[in-house]
Amino acid sequence: MTSLRDDIAIGQLNEMGQEYLPGVLGLEMVELSEGSLKSRMPVRKLHIAPNEFLHAASVVALADTTCGYATIAHLPAGADSFTTIELKSNHLGTVKEGSIACQATAQHLGRNTQVWDAVVTDEASGRKIALFRCTQMILWPKP
């Protein structure tokens, strides 16, 4: 089983996305541990759909980024990177203000794939907003 790399810290995870979608959306990684990563995202108008509810893509971006960064922090020694090969989300609710939180938990940390589950909640109440699962393919150097 792959374990948490000791050369990755929360600050690095937050820094790597600043000029990309995670930075634009205001995602913040808050706690990294063995088999887990927690994050949050303050809800702003840019996260809201024209129907005035939280846009599903905003929720997916938080969950997918959290699982992706968790994968980076748990890459097997010698691996180059990863890519998402499947994701699924079930949306259970919404928020219109405040912040949402996410906890990604490893379900499988193999040599060639990782499977992560994430639960997205209303940060203030803890109410579930979405359930998410993704499969990551580990990328190895070409011989």
CATH architecture group name: Roll
Characterize the quaternary organization of these chains. Answer: single chain
Low-pLDDT stretches are none
Output the CATH topology.
Thiol Ester Dehydrase, Chain A
The arrangement of helices and strands along the chain is HHEEHEEEE
Q: Tell me the number of helical segments per DSSP (H or I, 4 or more residues long).
A: 3
Report the sheet-strand fraction.
Answer: 35-45%
For the record, give the distance between the C-alpha atoms at the N and C termini, rounded to a whole number. Answer: 23 Å
The average pLDDT score comes to 96
Shape: elongated
Please estimate the helix content. 10-25%
Radius of gyration equals: 15 Å
Structural class call reads alpha+beta
Number of DSSP-assigned strands: 6
The main pleated sheet reads as: 6 strands, antiparallel
Walk across the major sheet and give the strand order: 1-2-4-5-6-3
